[in-house]
Amino acid sequence: xxxxxxxxxxxxxxxxxxxxxxxxxxxxxxxxxxxxxxxxxxxxxxxxxxxxxxxxxxxxxxxxxxxxxxxxxxxxxxxxxxxxxxxxxxxxxxxxxxxxxxxxxxxxxxxxxxxxxxxxxxxxxxxxxxxxxxxxxxxxxxxxxxxxxxxxxxxxxxxxxxxxxxxxxxxxxxxxxxxxxxxxxxxxxxxxxxxxxxxxxxxxxxxxxxxxxxxxxxxx
Length: 220
Ligand SMILES: Nc1ncnc2c1ncn2[C@@H]1O[C@H](COP(=O)(O)OP(=O)(O)OP(=O)(O)O)[C@@H](O)[C@H]1O
Ligand SMILES: [Mg+2]
Fold this sequence. Notes:
Blueprint (H helix, E strand, L loop, with lengths): L11 E6 L6 H14 L4 E5 L5 H11 L6 H26 L2 E5 L2 H11 L4 H12 L6 E6 L2 H11 L11 H17 L4 E5 L4 H15 L9
Parallel strand pairs: 1-3, 1-4, 2-3, 4-5
The protein binds adenosine-5'-triphosphate (ATP) and magnesium ion.
């Protein structure tokens, strides 16, 4: 059941993925602006987060260090389930274009590929919490770790556990997302995230239109 195929749903679900500092939040905002200008009803959200409870879980994760990987995975999926049931699914039925900053691919990469939790176990949790739901389109922002790190350091004073990762870990994540795009080619596209925001945004928009041709000029 992708958002597009289900008879119950009129909207579209687009996720943004990639390592820290690749420009996800920036590009989510720019895509939302473009689609809103063209008449779509757009909802921006993020993971973990998107509901009151899920944002509380986000806060717990953000302010805790050395969290056991399985605990972290369970909290991520608890937040995701709540987000899906209380917000994503109802809004899709109403015809919203939902643009989500990270989704379950991040669990596959961070808890699976980086923290070595077997992918089958993560997919079991995905099945329990999301059933067969898949994004209509997933943008994977790809950037060399050195540039991503530079962007992050300019951005914030407080760096969390993931922001403090080594270049090696960044590369594991980058390659992890490449593997995701190979595993789900029908919904994923790797986008070169270097260059200025506008340049990246036009690459993103071109890809969105190719994967979801119905998206443009859709009066909702
Ligand atoms: N194309 C770009 N060129 C230069 N700087 C950029 C570009 N896109 C975003 N930035 C800047 O880089 C920083 C990180 O961008 P952003 O917060 O969008 O990344 P992110 O992928 O959401 O990071 P995180 O995973 O940590 O949330 C911000 O300060 C942002 O203004
Ligand atoms: Mg962000």
